[in-house]
Amino acid sequence: MTKAQELGKFAEDKAADYVLSLGWKVLARNVRNQYGEIDIASVDDKELVIVEVRCRTLGKVQSPLDSIGPKKLNSLVKASREFINSIDWPDFWRIDVIGITINDKAKVHDWELTHIKDITGGMNIMS
Question: What are the pLDDT digits (tens) for 14-43?
Fold first, then answer.
């Protein structure tokens, strides 16, 4: 496993732990479909939450949250819709982003988590 893959797994594990600490139920992790990958699919009360996990090392050009551009957002929406259709989800859903910033590559225990709810803000994203 490469260093980037190790950091990615670390970030996804921390994000999953955080989601569970909120009392959410994790339905699935690392779900792949024709449009992309869903890092974490979870349920917050009665709402399905698709969680995109972004990890960066402090000092990189972009923060984890700034690394989601229009192309990535569009693929997230498409992958989410495909997943939702595959499980026949009947209620509301949203996409959240959890950003993990590693403060020092050598010390992965030194990290910060940022959670942004509903990154589409109810926008009608065309797919």
Answer: 999 999 999 999 999 999 999 999 999 999
Measuring CA to CA, how many Å separate 25 from each of 3, 47, 74, 124? 29, 11, 25, 26
CATH number at residue 95: 3.40.1350.10
Range of the domain at 111: 3-116
With respect to residue 57, please indicate whether it lies within any of the assigned structural domains. yes
Which runs of E-coded beta strand occur in 20-110?
25-33, 36-44, 47-57, 93-102
Structural domains in the chain (count): 1
- pTM of this structure: 0.87
